[in-house]
Design goal:
CATH architecture of the largest domain: Alpha-Beta Barrel
Largest sheet: 5 strands, antiparallel
Shape: globular
Number of strands: 15
Helix content: 25-40%
Number of helices: 11
Number of domains: 2
Distance between the termini: 34 Å
Length: about 300
């Protein structure tokens, strides 16, 4: 019996996806003014051709920010603010407080030009700078480091990751990581997953819910080696990686998060397949010829 076709996305999902496309990837190409912090004026966003064709309204923008399951967007209430004033305003409040305050302000001030919006992570726009957008993680702040840093990927991508020697940005500014689930939690769910009762549908910021292979990174070891890591305001961990070019290339080599910083890799139904540089279980050769689930391009997620 053929699988049932997926229902069309809801209006809210359509608006959210359009906003993500514009604010993460297409702003410069579409002529939208976006600053180094990733902010664009809501009035300019509403004037974008795709949102105009959808007849998106200011309240729908507010709804997309307020109801995003992964907190994909941040909002700033900044009537008549200069860029410097915007930075000072955001610095005076936490990023989460800024968004909450802006959503509250929208109940009495619905002027789109008074608001700035940005995607919280996932950018491929090179002018958006990590230092302006993200919190840098350091060994000096060990108490603030997440206990789990995990990258979710697919069967077809894992052999390519092994062959290349690490996790690459693949078109985005950084590789994305989540702060859970932990290794023991996933291993404890193996029987449930075999029976179809696992938690693959759980929403986790920094990882697609249908990720099949979980790559766990030793964050402290990576930081000690000089591999930078950041945290977004919605709790996603990110890294642009470090140069690991061939001898003689030096800093000009391709950047990645090397496999030497990977503690363990878990396939959701097989269990551990890799640990500290050693293959624990050989994965099927078919993975290398496979494709990602429909609609999933791990080249944009690794």
């Amino acid at each position: 019996m053929p699988p049932k076709p997926r229902p069309p996305p809801s209006r809210a999902v359509t608006v959210s996806k359009a906003l993500s496309l514009l604010l993460r990837h297409a702003a410069e190409k579409e002529g939208l003014k976006i600053d180094a912090q990733g902010y664009a004026n809501v009035a300019d966003v509403l004037s974008w051709r795709k949102l105009k064709s959808l007849k998106v309204t200011f309240p729908e923008i507010i709804e997309a920010v307020a109801n995003s399951d992964k907190k994909r967007f941040a909002l700033l209430y900044a009537p008549a603010s200069t860029p410097t004033e915007t930075e000072e305003k955001e610095a005076a409040e936490s990023k989460e407080e800024s968004t909450t305050a802006a959503i509250t302000a929208s109940t009495t001030d619905s002027t789109p030009t008074h608001y700035l919006i940005r995607a919280t992570q996932g950018h491929s726009i090179k002018s958006v700078e990590a230092a302006h957008l993200l919190e840098k993680l350091t060994l000096e702040g060990k108490d603030k480091l997440p206990g789990t840093v995990v990258h979710g990927t697919y069967h077809s991508a894992w052999p390519a990751i092994v062959a290349s020697g690490g996790l690459r940005c693949m078109g985005r500014n950084q590789v994305h990581f989540a702060t859970g689930p932990g290794v023991e939690e996933v291993l404890g769910q193996l029987d449930q997953n075999k029976e179809g009762n696992g938690d693959k549908g759980k929403v986790i910021s920094g990882m697609r819910r249908d990720a099949q292979v979980l790559v766990y990174v030793d964050l402290e070891r990576a930081l000690k080696a000089g591999c930078p890591f950041w945290r977004s305001e919605n709790g996603v961990i990110l890294s642009e990686g470090m140069s690991v070019g061939v001898a003689g290339e030096g800093e000009g080599g391709e950047k990645m998060v090397p496999l030497e910083f990977v503690d363990v890799v878990v396939e959701r139904k097989m269990g551990k397949i890799w640990e500290r540089g050693q293959v624990v279980q050989q994965w099927p050769s078919e993975w290398a010829q496979g494709r990602n689930p429909k609609g999933r391009s791990d080249g944009k997620r690794r």
